[in-house]
Structures are given as structure tokens and as C-alpha cells.
Amino acid sequence: MIDLLSTVRFLASQEPASMPELNIPKVPEITTALELGAELQANPLKLTQLVEILDVQRSLLINTLREVAPIINATRQELSQLAQDFIRQGIELFMQSLIPNPAVAIAAQMQLMQLPGVFIDHASLRLNEMTQTLQPYVDKLSTITPVAEPRLAEVPAPTSGAASAGERAVAAAKTALGAPYLWGGTSLNGFDCSGFTQWAWRAAGLELPRTAEQQAVGTQVSADQLQPGDLAVWDGHVAMYAGNGELIEAGDPVQLNPLRTSNMGMTFQGFFRPTG
């Protein structure tokens, strides 16, 4: 007679582990660190980009775990039910094998001998289905890389004053060359025009307003007074002077273009030098 208990133990061992309750820490608040860095004229670019990367990776991890938990738990329940069905059918067939009627008893014994293989095959099939279902999530999580690998620019520490902050803003902006355009975007995953200039100037230690028109702040300058980091502002667009007669701006993608004062018929408000 077959060992029913061994099969039950095997089926139980195939249940995937339950999803643990993971407490993924929030990305630390760095406002105080940025303020201190600004006082010390330290370059905040690496810190802000690391925090941005960690925040994206944390969100990806949390959302992925939330999506896979029901898949894994459903498989656990199915395999648990499978073990219970095996026990029930095994007992029924065993009792039938004791019936004095030889035909019934032999038929029950034959089915009983085949029963473990049927249930083990069923369990293996269900586990393979779960593995295939989870593979896209595994691939998604494989995109999480050590934070030392992403592009983190070393911005030279300039001397002092508004021009130095502007140079830091331009250096930050150039690390985003090639980033895609994204309406409302404020990160390396995608920028709109004002989100891009706000992001670059934040790396230089200065927080700008969010929209293009609102970034006409600071000191207005003429074209012959332009310094790196100064902003060219229209009523629906903003770009940053990168030096050497060029603007850097969030087109599609972020790119360098010749200095200009026209932009698809928009009203040009002027050049502005952000100041703290």
C-alpha cells in the first residue's frame, strides 16, 4: 500500500512561503542637509540624485510586492486545498479497497497507487504557472541597481556668488541631457520645461517656483550680461543659459540649442538670474 503521509508532506513542502510584512523605510528628508550644504557652498547634486533614485526604487519595490502578494497567496491556498483533496480521496479509495467485492477493491487499489502521481503533477503544474506569472515582476525588480551605478555628476565647486550657483545649476542640467520630455515631469524619468530648470537649480541649492511664468524671478539681465544658469522666460516656456551662446532646455529630449528670444510665437518676458 502506498504511503499517503509522505505524499501529503511533499505537497505541503511545495507551498510557497507566505509574503512577509516588509517595513521598507521611507527615503530620508534632506531639506536640512541641503540648507547646511548651501551655507557651506557644498555641491548637493549627488545627494539629491541619490535620494531621487532611492525614492523611485522604493516605490517600485512596494508596488511590486503589493501586486505579487495575491498571486503567491492564491497559490498557497490552492496547494493547501490540493493536499486536503488528496487526503479525502485517498481515504475514500482506501476504504473502497477493503470492500469484499474483488472488482471494486482492485479498482480502488489501482486508483490509490496512481493518486500520488496525479496530485504531485497537479502541484508541479500550478507552481510552474505561478513562476511564469511572477517572471515579469522579477524582471521589473531586476531593474533596481545599486545607487552607485546611476549617472551621478561631479560638479566642480565654483568660487562664490550668483554666477557660481548658476554654474552648478548648468552642470546639473547637463547630466540630464537626453532625458525624455514628460508633461509635469520633474525627474530624470522625464521633464517638462519648468520642472527641468527647477530640478537643476534645486541641485545648485536654490528652490524655484514650479511654472515657467513664475520663474521670471531674481534679477532681470540683458543678453550681453548673461551668465551660466540665467533663465530665458516666455509666457509658456523656460530655458537655461548654458554659456557659449547656448540654451539647455527640456525639449524632447533635454538638449542644447542656440541662444534665442523667440519660441513658437510665445511672448518673451526676458532673461532672469535666480537669486537666493
From TrEMBL:
Q: Please indicate which superkingdom the organism of origin belongs to.
A: Bacteria
The residues the entry assigns to the signal sequence are none
What are the GO MF terms of this UniProt record? cysteine-type peptidase activity
Indicate yes or no for the key word Protease: yes
Mind listing the GO biological process terms from this record? proteolysis
Q: Does the keyword Hydrolase apply?
A: yes
Which keywords does UniProt give here? Hydrolase, Protease, Thiol protease
Give the NlpC/P60 domain ranges.
Answer: 163-276
Which family does the record claim for this protein? Answer: Belongs to the peptidase C40 family.
Under what name is this protein listed?
Cell wall-associated hydrolase
Native organism is Corynebacterium callunae DSM 20147
What is the taxonomic lineage of the source species? Bacteria, Bacillati, Actinomycetota, Actinomycetes, Mycobacteriales
